[in-house]
Amino acid sequence: MAAGDRAAARARATIRSLYDPTSSRANDFVHEVDVTRPWTTGYAMARPLRHGLGLNDTDGLDVSPWVGLSDVSASSNGIQGFVSVRRGRCGLVLGGPRLGMLSSRFAQARALGRALVRPEQQNFILSVARGHDERVAGAFAAELLAPAEGIRQSLYAIGKHDDSALEAVARHFKVSPLLVRHQYDNQIAVSSHKAIW
Question: Which of 67, 126, 173, 196 is the most exposed, having the fewest neighbouring CB atoms within 10 Å of its CB?
Answer without folding.
Answer: 196
